[in-house]
Design a protein that fits this description.
Number of domains of chain B: 2
Structural class of chain B: alpha/beta
Radius of gyration of chain B: 23 Å
Strand order of the largest sheet of chain B: 8-7-9-10-11-14-15
Number of strands of chain A: 4
Number of helices of chain A: 12
Strand content of chain A: under 5%
Strand order of the largest sheet of chain A: 1-4
Helix content of chain A: over 70%
CATH class of the largest domain in chain B: Alpha Beta
Oligomer: heterodimer
Helix content of chain B: 40-55%
Shape of chain B: globular
Order of helices and strands of chain B: HEHEEHEHEEHEHEHEHEHEHHHEEEE
Strand content of chain B: 15-25%
Distance between the termini of chain B: 81 Å
GO cellular component, one term (chain A): plasma membrane
Family (chain B): Belongs to the leucine-binding protein family.
Keywords (chain B): Receptor, Signal
Protein name (chain B): Extracellular ligand-binding receptor
Largest interface: A-B, 44 and 40 residues
Organism (chain B): uncultured spirochete
Distance between the termini of chain A: 54 Å
Radius of gyration of chain A: 19 Å
C-alpha cells in the first residue's frame, strides 16, 4: 500500500468515525443521566434528517435554516417522546422502560413509512458542503471536514454544560440518585426534559450531517447508525461523553482498516463491529473510559 | 349479571361472524402482487406495481371457460427482506389463496418465495428478477424477463468491444444473490473475451444498506482498472458512484437492470451522468403493438416515461391472464401447464416465449444517463 493510499484510508476513517462519535454522544448523554438506553435514538436521528429534507424541498428554506428548524423541532419532539413513553415508567423496573424504548422505535419507523413513504429519497446537498478538496492525491468533501470540527465543538460544549453549569450539576445529581435529587429541590422533570432535548438535538444534527454526507433518506436509515453508535458508546464506556467520541472514532477506524487491509473480508464489515462489541463486553464491560459502579439494590 | 351480558355479546359476535363468512362461490380471480414496497428495494417494487395496476385497469376481467371473473389484486409487501418475503408469500398462498403470484423485484426475494409457491403448487411469475436460480428446479416459478448469464455477457461485451477495456474491478452487493450472480457471469464472460485469466483485478464486497464505501473505493484507486462493474441495489450503487467521484475516480461505471429507478438519479444526481447499464426495454423502440398500447396508456395516466420494470409488471399480468384463459380453469395444475407453454405472446417488452426453465428469451437494451434522464443506447439480441 502506498503512502497516499494509506493517508486516504486514514482520512476516510476519521470522517466516518467522527460521524459515529457525533451520534454516540447523544446515546451516552441520555444513558449517563437516566440509565436508559434510548433505542429510539436512531429513529429520532431519521426524523431530524427528514424534517430538514422537507424544510429544503417543500418550504425551500436555505439549508442552514432547515437545519436549525429541524434541530429545534426534533429537540421538542424528543422531550415529548420522553413525556409520553418514558416518564410514566420512571419508577418501574428498568426493563419496562427499555421495552417501551424499543416500542417507541418501532412506532416511529412505522409512522415514518406511512407518512414519508417507503421509497428512498435523494437529498439536495448544498454545494458548499459537497465540494471536493484535494490534498495532494488525497481527496475529501467539505462536509467530511466540517463534521469532526462540530463533533469536537459539541463535545466541548457538553462537557462544559455537565461540569460547569447549574443545570449540569442538577443533571449529575439526578444521575446519581433521582430521589435524593428531588429531596434537594432539583426539578427532576425539568432536568430529564433538558437531557432528552439535548440528546434529540444531537441526534437530529447527526442525522442531517449523515444525510448530507450520504444523500439518501429512508424510514429505516436510523437502524444501522443507531446500532453502530450504540456499540461506539459501549466501547467508550456508556455514560462517558469523552468515551463515546473515542468509541466512535475507534469504530470508524476499525471498519475502514478492515476493508483496507483485508479487502476480501469487506462484506463482513458490520460483523466486525458486533464482534468488537462482544469482545469489549467480555473483557472490559465498563468500556474504555467507563467507571465501575456498584449496582444500587 | 355482567358475566351473563358478556356471554350473550360473545355468542352474538360469533353468530355474526359465521353469517358473514357463509359459504360463497369465489367471484374473483386473485393475483397476488408480491413486491417490496418498503425498505431498500421499495423504489423498484413500486415501479412494477404501477405496471400491474395499469394492466388491471385496462383488462380487469378474465374469462375462465365461459364465465367472466373480475381480477382482484392482493398486494403483499415483502419489505425488501428475505425473511419477511417468505412470510408475505406464505400469507398470499395460505390466507389470501391467490391463483397466481406476480413478482418480486429482487432475485433474493423471489428465491425466498420459491419453495413456498412450489409447496402450495401456486404458479408465480417473476417480472424482473434475473438470477437463474429463481426458476431453476422450480416448475412453479416463471419469469417474463431474460436471465443474468445473458445480461452479464451483454455488459462484458460492451466493456470489451465498445470501451476497449482490458482490466475490470467488480464491486458486489455480497448479500444480494442478483448482484453476486450477475458479477460472476460478467467476470466469466469478460475473462473469456480478453483471453486473460487475470482480467478481473479485484472483487470488492459491500452489504445491502451500507452507506460508506470509501474504503472499498480507495482500494479500487490502487488497481487503476479500465472499467468498474458494480451491479447492485440502486441507492447503494448511486452512493458508490457519488463517493467514487469524490475520491477522484474517473473510471467508467457499468451496472445492471436494477439501476433503472428514479431514485438512482435522485440520489446520484450529477455523479451518475454517463454510467452505462443493461435493462429490459426502452420506450424509444417500441417492439410490439402491445408496447404502443402500454406506452400510450402509461403516458396518459402518469404523464412520464415508464421504466422497463413497469412494462414487465404489465406483461406479467397479461401473461398470467392469458394463461388462465387458455387453461379454461382455475385448477392450479392446469394454470401452471398453461403458463409453461406461453409462446409468442405479444407483451409490451417484446414477444414472450418461455423456455424449459420458465425463462423468457428476449433482447437486452443498453442505456445511459444523460442530462438526468435514462437514455437509450443500443439493443442486443440474445443469439
Amino acid at each position: 500500500m502506498t503512502l497516499s493510499l494509506l493517508f486516504q484510508h486514514i482520512v476516510n476513517a476519521l470522517s466516518l468515525g467522527s460521524l459515529y462519535a457525533l451520534i454516540a454522544i447523544g446515546y451516552t448523554m441520555v444513558y449517563g443521566i437516566l440509565r436508559l438506553i434510548n433505542f429510539a435514538h436512531g429513529d429520532v436521528f431519521m426524523l431530524g434528517a427528514y424534517v430538514a429534507f422537507y424544510g429544503i424541498t417543500l418550504v425551500s428554506l436555505p439549508w442552514w435554516a432547515a437545519l436549525l428548524v429541524s434541530i429545534a423541532f426534533t429537540a421538542l419532539f424528543g422531550i415529548g417522546l420522553e413525556r409520553v413513553a418514558y416518564k410514566p415508567l420512571r419508577d418501574s423496573p428498568r426493563i419496562s422502560i427499555m421495552i417501551s424504548a424499543i416500542g417507541a422505535s418501532f412506532l416511529l419507523e412505522s409512522l415514518a413509512v406511512l407518512i414519508f413513504g417507503g421509497r428512498p429519497k435523494g437529498v439536495p446537498v448544498p454545494d458548499v458542503l459537497s465540494k471536493v478538496i484535494h490534498f495532494g492525491s488525497v481527496s475529501m468533501i467539505t462536509i467530511s471536514l466540517i463534521i469532526p470540527l462540530f463533533t469536537f465543538a459539541l463535545l466541548g460544549v457538553l462537557v462544559w454544560i455537565v461540569n460547569k453549569t447549574k443545570t449540569g450539576m442538577a443533571m449529575r445529581a439526578v444521575s446519581t440518585d433521582i430521589e435524593a435529587a428531588r429531596l434537594m429541590a432539583v426539578d427532576v422533570n425539568k432536568v430529564v426534559s433538558f437531557t432528552f432535548g439535548i440528546g434529540s438535538l444531537l441526534a437530529a444534527f447527526g442525522g442531517i450531517m449523515w444525510s448530507f454526507k450520504y444523500p439518501q433518506l429512508n424510514p429505516l436509515m436510523g437502524m444501522m447508525p443507531g446500532l453502530k453508535c450504540f456499540i461506539a458508546a459501549v466501547i467508550g464506556g456508556i455514560g462517558s461523553i469523552g468515551g463515546a467520541v473515542m468509541g466512535g472514532f475507534l469504530l470508524g477506524i476499525i471498519e475502514i482498516m478492515i476493508v483496507a487491509f483485508l479487502p476480501t473480508l469487506s462484506g463482513y464489515r458490520d460483523a466486525f463491529a458486533f464482534i468488537l462489541l462482544i469482545v469489549v463486553l467480555l473483557v472490559k464491560p465498563t468500556g474504555l473510559l467507563g467507571k465501575r459502579q456498584a449496582e444500587k439494590v | 349479571m355482567k358475566k351473563a351480558v358478556g356471554c350473550m355479546l360473545l355468542v352474538l359476535g360469533i353468530a355474526a361472524l359465521i353469517v358473514a363468512c357463509g359459504p360463497a362461490a369465489p367471484k374473483t380471480v386473485k393475483f397476488g402482487v408480491f413486491e417490496p414496497l418498503t425498505g431498500a428495494n421499495a423504489g423498484g417494487g413500486a415501479l412494477e406495481v404501477e405496471g400491474i395496476k395499469l394492466a388491471n385497469e385496462m383488462y380487469p376481467t378474465v374469462k375462465v371457460g365461459d364465465k367472466e371473473y373480475k381480477i382482484e389484486l392482493v398486494i403483499a409487501d415483502n419489505k425488501s427482506d428475505k425473511v419477511e418475503a417468505a412470510n408475505a408469500a406464505q400469507r398470499l398462498v395460505d390466507k389470501d389463496k391467490v391463483n397466481v403470484v406476480l413478482g418480486s423485484w429482487g432475485s433474493s426475494l423471489s428465491m425466498a418465495a420459491g419453495p413456498i409457491v412450489k409447496n402450495a403448487k401456486v404458479s408465480a411469475i417473476g417480472l424482473s428478477c434475473t438470477n437463474p436460480l429463481v426458476t431453476k428446479g422450480n416448475e412453479y416459478y416463471f419469469r417474463v424477463c431474460f436471465i443474468d448469464p445473458f445480461q452479464g455477457t451483454v455488459m462484458a461485451n460492451y466493456a470489451f468491444k465498445n470501451l476497449n477495456a482490458k482490466k475490470a474491478v467488480i464491486i458486489r452487493e455480497v448479500s444480494n444473490d442478483y448482484s453476486v450472480g450477475l458479477a460472476k457471469f460478467f467476470a466469466d464472460s469478460f475473462k473469456q473475451l480478453t483471453g486473460d485469466e487475470n482480467a478481473i483485478l479485484a472483487e470488492l464486497n459491500y452489504n445491502t444498506g451500507d452507506t460508506d464505501f470509501s474504503a472499498q473505493l480507495t482500494e479500487v484507486k490502487k488497481f487503476k482498472p479500465d472499467v468498474i462493474f458494480a451491479p447492485g441495489n440502486y441507492t447503494e450503487s448511486a452512493l458508490i458512484i457519488k463517493q467514487a467521484k469524490e475520491l477522484g475516480i474517473k473510471t467508467q461505471f457499468l451496472g445492471g437492470d436494477t439501476w433503472e429507478t428514479p431514485e438512482f438519479i435522485d440520489v446520484g444526481k450529477q455523479a451518475v451522468e454517463g454510467v452505462v447499464f443493461s435493462t429490459f426495454f426502452a420506450t424509444e423502440t417500441p417492439i410490439t403493438d402491445t408496447s404502443k398500447v402500454f406506452l400510450d396508456a402509461y403516458r396518459q395516466k402518469y404523464n412520464k416515461e415508464p421504466a422497463a420494470v413497469t412494462a414487465l409488471g404489465f406483461d406479467g399480468y397479461l401473461v398470467a391472464r392469458d394463461a388462465i384463459q387458455r387453461a379454461g380453469s382455475l385448477d392450479k395444475e392446469k394454470v401452471r401447464a398453461a403458463i409453461a407453454v406461453t409462446k409468442d405472446f405479444p407483451g409490451a417488452t417484446g414477444m414472450i416465449t418461455l423456455n424449459e426453465d420458465g425463462d423468457a428469451v428476449k433482447s437486452a437494451v443498453i442505456k445511459t444517463i444523460k442530462d438526468g434522464k435514462f437514455t437509450y443506447m443500443a439493443t442486443v439480441q440474445p443469439y
